[in-house]
Design a protein that fits this description.
This protein has about 500 residues and is of the alpha/beta class. Helix content is about 40%, strand content about 15%. About 45% of the residues are buried.
Length: about 500
Amino acid sequence: MKNILFFLTLLFCAHVSIAQKVKVPIDTTIVTNHTTTIKGKTIPYKATTGFQPVWDENRMPIASLSYTYYKRSDIKNDQNRPLLISFNGGPGSASVWMHIAYTGPRILKIDEEGFPVQPYGIKANPNSVLDVADIVFVNPVNTGYSRMIPGKDGKMPDKELFFGVNADVTYLAEWINTFVTRNNRWRSPKYLIGESYGTTRVSGLALELQNRQWMYLNGVILVSPTQIGFKFAGPVEVANRLPYFAAAAWYHKMLPAELQNKDLLEVLPEVENYTINELLPAIVKSGYLDDAKKEEVINKMAYYSGLSKRTIRQNNLEVPKSYFWKDLLRDREGYTIGRLDSRYKGMDIKESGGEPDYNSELTAWLHAFTPAINYYYSQELGFKTDLKYNMFGPVQPWDRSKDNNTGENLRKAMAMNANLHTMIQSGYYDGATTYFNAKYVMWQLNANGKLTDRLSFKGYRSGHMMYLRNEDLIQANEDIRTFIIKSSTHISKGSKY
C-alpha cells in the first residue's frame, strides 16, 4: 500500500511539474490593428507579435525567435516599400531599446532629456519612420522571449550554434531569409539597423545575406558602433579618448572658460585636430618624448579634458575611461558620471577609487524600459505569457575565438553592391562606444576613398542611446528617413558603377 501511495505521489508531482512548465511558442503570430500620427499624417498599421523558428540542417526547430513586425496597412503594393530589420546588441540584449524608444510607433514615457518618469508607460511616437518603411524588431536567442528549443530527446541544442560572433551572423541570416520569404518582401528595398554590438551583427549580416542568402541590401545603419572588427588598440585607442573626454567635460562645465563659452560643435573639431596631429604622435613616442614636449602635452590634455595635470601625469598620458568617469567631478561634487551616457551622475559609497561602483545611466534606463515593455506586450500587443522578457539574456560565454571580420565584410559588401549605403549615428556623450571611434570606423570602411558618397556620419548631443533625448529623437529619425529615401530612389538604375 505504501508503495502505491508513493507511486501516486510521484505521478502527481510529475503532473504538476509538467503543468507548470512555461511553454515557448515555436511558430505563432498575434495580429493587432492600430493607427498613429507621424509628421501630422494618420498612419494605419498592423502589428504582428510573432515567433519564428530557427531551423537545423534537417529543418527541425532548434530555437524560436520572438519578433514584432509593424506593417503599414494602407499600402496596396509594397514592392517599393522599404523593410527595416532592427537589432540591438549586448551581446545578450533584447530589441527593447530601439523598439520602444527610437523607430517604432510606440515609445516609453520619459522626460525631454530622456530621464525616467513615473508612472511608467507607453505613448505615441510621432517621429517613427513607419511612414517610410515597415519595421521588424528581432530578439536573438535568449533575449526578449526568444529561447532555444529542446530536441525530442529533451536535450538543448549546442550553444555554439548561437553564441558567438560568427555563429550569431550565420543563424540570423537564415532566419531573415525565412522571414522575408514568409512575408513576401523579396522585392522590397531592405535595410539593417543595429545598435552597439548590434553593429557588429548587422555589419557581418550585410555580406552573409549577400553571399549565402543572395539577398542584397540597400542600407546599413550603425547606431553607436563597436569597432566591428577593426583593430585600433595601443596609441590610437588611447588618443581617441580625448574628444569624448572633451565632450563630457563640456557638458558638466568642467572646461576652461575659453572653451566652455564656445558651443560644443566648435570645441570638438579643435580637439579632434589636436588628437590626430599632436597627441597620437606623442603617445607613440611614449618614454622617448622629451620632458618639455611631454609637459606641453599634459597641459593641453588637461585643457581639453577637464582633468587635472596631476591625474594625466600620474597616468602617463593614458587615462582610462573608467578613471575619467570616477574622477571628472570628484573634487567639485563627488559624483561619478555615466559610461553609456555621461550626462548621468552616480553616487558611490566612497569618493576615492579608480572606477564607479555602478553604471548610473543603465540603472535609470532599466527603471523605465522594463515596466514599459512588459505592459506593452500584454496590454497593447495582446501577447500574454509567463515567460520572462529578458532585457539581458544568458548568452555567455560568447565565442570570440574566431576572427571578427565584420567591418571588412561590410566594406566588401559595399564594394560588391553599388546600391549599398551605410550611415553611422553616435552620441557625443557616449563613453562606451565613443563618437570619435565611430568616425575612425567610418574612415577604415573607406580605406580606398571610393565609398565617400555612400558613407555618412551623424552626431547628437546625448549618449549611447541618443534617441532618448527628444530633440535627438526627432533629428535621428529624420536622418534615417532621409537615408532610406535617398538610398532607395535610384534602384531602377541597377547596381553598377
